[in-house]
Write a structure and sequence with these properties.
homodimer, 376 residues, alpha/beta, 2 domains, eight-stranded parallel β-sheet, three-stranded antiparallel β-sheet, 42% helix
């Protein structure tokens, strides 16, 4: 492996940026959407299929992997890439967010978090140092700082306390990460929807210095308007020459709005999870394949989509296998949703490169306003 | 489509036969194993992947498809091949066996069977004529006669009664099927484990005349020894120039023993169902991937297997995703099992063609006697 981790902005259009992140495991075209591979698999997809949708990078979850099969075991088996057969870059989260949302009997101190596993009830501790160690054992290409994302609703005082703790943890994460050529460490901005706290957080992170900067603590129930309110200024507080990653976002229109505000990277379980529950994302909005109106419909989900679900199958078939609870339903709908998300990113990248992102956005919203194709 | 349905025996070695069935939708190399695609999908597999394992033909279940999404709907959508995106030949069963094993409130008369759907409780009737109609609507390439397979244990009188009813239904099936160039109708021999009844059934079927002949009523709990006892004489009662299909079989050693006794075609849910329950078939016997001894094992299931599960993943990974109930576990283990079954058939076809089937069988049994690779 070469030592390089690098980000280059190749084009801007308004606040939107198109660029390339270079890692020893391959390039990531930005704006990039990262499918989530929680427990060593992007659910219902083979890695070659994930790559075929156009994904350059996937995300792995420290919390899930540390509990099962454990980071030490994955390390013994040659690291997460080999374990799950994904050749491209992998970003891992720090475990902090999911400890707060999934684990039981959490106890938060200055040092870190102790908790009980939701899998088998065993006790564990996550600290900035342990999170860095786990992400190193996994072989992550892009490592995230350990942070605390407070649950909503939270008072301003609570949000400020959590942000300042996260900034102290960011410093400890930076120190524990050390110098690992070819691997990147991203800081995470916190501060809820309060501008002063967001600015304070950005300054703290910049004074530590990271390879990239995430906007954390959004998409946790505050709503799109409040989220966009933060994104109207937050990316501008971060260094222009580093990637900006909006964590856990989102719906297609969230993603488009975030890119328009200067975000370069995103991840979300929505396309994969929705694939398993029969919610399908298309150019013309969301289609619920369970709906009886599809039962006799010979048309594909989207005639312009090149994914296997659209090329080879009718809505009637997809409706049937969803109703019959066949595994192929999750396989095909997940593939379609990931393909749609990657098409969306590719469309934005091309539009930004050609300076027509405003037009592209207008077309995007017009197709959605039109709605799904008429029933037969 | 051309009109041809044809079977040619190309080689024999002892009683074992190697040949080719030609259909308008493609050739079927025999001995052939047919993966089961119950409800319009070979569970957890995309059709291209099924074909990639080496399968020339798959099986569809009339009982499941008539209830959901219904044969009429599949017909309106262009037939089963287009519906499920399988380009090769499809054999459909008659519904008779599964009505007896799955449906509720069955009532059997000379005319047929009335029953309540296990899906939604709706009432249905299957007769020889309706079964032929459904299989025609599905667009099946190889259609099976409607028969009654009595549940075990059954008295000799009961087996004889069911066999004779099945022979009368075979005559009605033949009449209802009519003349459909390019489509084949197979008769089904019944008679349990009683030689006289099997011979009587074979004579009845031959006097009607079919494009192929199945041995039914085996693999229903009688045990391998009793099954092989019937197969020692039953195939010889059937025309040598037509394919012989052993329904619902079986484990790898059942399949090898059946081929050695002159069987050309088989089907079974075992490789697909076992793929979902973590039972893996290999040259060296069955591996239970759930077993903790695989948790740290970096070796593939079988180093000589070329399937994606063996080429790209460790036993440790397969153990992990099975334990975590990830869909990729069913996808990879089903693919491996189907690949193994097709490798088995290809090995037998080559051995028969080269007149070394006895040696091949000895090697097959020796590898299994050796057992799975030693724990780490």
């Amino acid at each position: 492996m070469t030592a390089a981790f690098n980000f280059e902005v190749k084009a801007t259009d308004g606040k939107a940026r198109g660029g390339v992140i270079t890692t020893p495991r391959g390039q990531i075209r930005t704006p990039a959407f990262m499918p989530v591979g929680t427990a060593g698999t992007v659910k219902a997809m083979l890695p070659d299929s994930v790559a075929a949708t156009g994904a350059d990078i996937i995300l792995g979850n420290t919390y899930h992997l540390m509990l099962r099969p454990t980071a030490e075991r994955i390390d013994r088996l040659g690291g997460l890439h080999r374990f799950m057969n994904w050749r491209g870059p992998i970003l891992t989260d720090s475990g902090g967010f999911q400890v707060m949302s999934l684990a039981e009997l959490r106890k938060l101190t200055e040092d870190g978090v102790t908790f009980k596993s939701h899998v088998d009830g065993s006790r564990h501790t996550l600290t900035p140092e342990r999170s860095m160690e786990i992400q190193r054992l996994l072989g992550s290409d892009i490592v995230m700082c350990f942070d605390e994302c407070p649950a909503l609703p939270a008072t301003d005082d609570e949000v400020a306390r959590a942000m300042r703790l996260s900034m102290r943890w960011a410093e400890r994460s930076r120190a524990a990460f050390g110098d690992r050529p070819g691997h990147a460490l991203f800081g995470i901005m916190q501060g809820g929807v309060t501008r002063e706290l967001r600015e304070e957080s950005a300054e703290a992170l910049k004074s530590i210095g990271f390879d990239g900067y995430a906007v954390g603590g959004l998409a946790v129930g505050e709503g799109q308007e409040a989220m966009f309110g933060v994104l109207d200024y937050a990316p501008d507080c971060l260094p222009a020459d580093k990637p900006r990653y909006l964590m856990g976002v989102g719906k297609p229109d969230d993603i488009v709005g975030a890119v328009a505000r200067g975000i370069d990277m995103m991840d979300c379980v929505l396309p994969t999870r929705s694939g398993r529950t029969g919610q399908v994302f298309t150019r013309r909005g969301v289609v619920n394949i369970k709906n009886a109106r599809h039962a006799d419909d010979p048309r594909p989900l989207d005639e312009e989509c090149a994914c296997p679900a659209c090329r080879h199958y009718s809505r009637a078939y997809l409706h049937h296998v969803f109703r019959a609870q066949e595994i192929i339903s999750s396989m095909l709908l997940t593939w379609h949703n990931l393909h749609y998300y990657q098409d969306l990113m590719a469309g934005m990248r091309a539009a930004i490169a050609e300076g027509r992102f405003a037009d592209w956005q207008a077309t995007f919203h017009a197709a959605r306003a039109e709605g799904d194709i008429a029933p037969l």
